[in-house]
Amino acid sequence: MSIQPPLTLNQKPAEIIGITATKEEDFPQWYQEVVVKAGMVEYYTEIAGLFVLRPLTMFIWSELRKWFQSHLDEMDIGEAAFPLFLSAKSLAKEKDHIEGFAPELAWWNSVVRWETKQTTPFLRTREFLWQEGHTAHLTEEQAGIEVLEILELYAQLYEDLLAVPVVRGRKTENERFAGGYYTMTLEGYIPSNGRGIQGATSHCLGQNFSKMFDISVEDPAGSGQLYAWQNSWAFSTRVIGVMVMIHGDNKGLVLPPRVAQTQIVMVPVGINRKTSAEDKDCLLDQLYEMRKMLKKLGLRVEVDTREGYTPAWKFNDWEMKGVPLRMEFGPKDAKSHVVSYAVRHNNEKGTMPVAEIGPQATRLLEQIQKDMYDKANLAYSQHRKVIGNWDEVTPALDSKNVVLIPFCLDGKCEERIKQLTTKEDDLGDQGTASMGMKSLCIPFEQPGEIEEGRKCLNPECDKLAQKWTLFGRSY
């Protein structure tokens, strides 16, 4: 693997190549710098909103795809590829049957989305990679079972691979997929700005589309034709952006070991002009032998032997790229038969015996994966506030929380809640609206029963509350 110093678009060698914005003070700029300088994307200057996905990104996407496809194979769900284009006639048929499917509002397909105005790498781009599944079932019950199975696979992908916690739930009627019967969802949370973000969805389409396009099978009971119950489910490269936002820090990217292209980087240290060529070769030979041992265990390891860069520069470079574990090996380490290490996400440092480098490195990477999830999960749980008083809602949102409130599930009430929580910031002649909250999901795991007679939290609503519902400002 050829390793080159990280360069941003149109960057001169003398320019700063590290992260200049801080996550706390300028989150949008910080995010843009991280995804570019860590080598995840390049801006495609021909057309706004398009990005080149670099090898680091494609490796992560490939790992997610392999993991998910292996589970689909177990479910006997095969791969297929469909044309990029759809006839205007077919789209018009959807327009005539389904509110929200007018061509000017939903002209999109598997990889292109042109209605997007403001773009952000991974989160909202004009072209993106995604996985979409479509299945047909004989009964509503069979379709419903699969909807939840797929949703749980998506949850495992987030939590077990990306170390990102999610809330599993059902979308409200206002937020469900247009034309669908119901939508199940995973909802994430970005601590830096307190916004919720949709992670993946699994839809039961019901029989709407099967009746529209005459998709039917013979009834096994022999009573004629049955329209199929259809499902649709998808996730996209948005998952990578969520991972970056949650785990990254002011040094750059922080990658969970299970999806890191390089899990361990080994940097030779203590080599200077006084070091003989023989001693240098001996040190490097030991490093390569350790790499060989680690690779046999299935670990992804690089040895950084770039000339012209100090060890400190290399440390900063690999920290910016998010490599989970750095190992340092020099003459002093060789004499003591140890290798020094530094953990990316928490700066923990220590040594391990060369003779035990395999099992100890493996255990350490698993601990890193767990620690990253636990940290993100704690942040999410601490910022999910159960609110029983309307006056507490806006202060909670302003404190970067999402809120669980008793809600009547009425669509008009939901729209009114969004209006009531939208406020004008006092910015002189250029007042801008502060984002109102929207429903994220009705969590499967409720904070408790809705007591009898409890009203919806909306102060203008007289209806009884039906469910605790997660609301928040969101992407």
From TrEMBL:
PROSITE patterns: AA_TRNA_LIGASE_II (PS50862)
BP terms from Gene Ontology: prolyl-tRNA aminoacylation
Gene Ontology cellular-component annotations: aminoacyl-tRNA synthetase multienzyme complex; cytoplasm
A GO MF label: ATP binding
Protein name as catalogued: proline--tRNA ligase
Enzyme Commission code: 6.1.1.15
Keywords carried by this UniProt record: Aminoacyl-tRNA synthetase, ATP-binding, Ligase, Nucleotide-binding, Protein biosynthesis
Signal peptide (UniProt feature, chain positions): none
Keyword presence, Protein biosynthesis: yes
Source organism of this protein record: Fusarium oxysporum
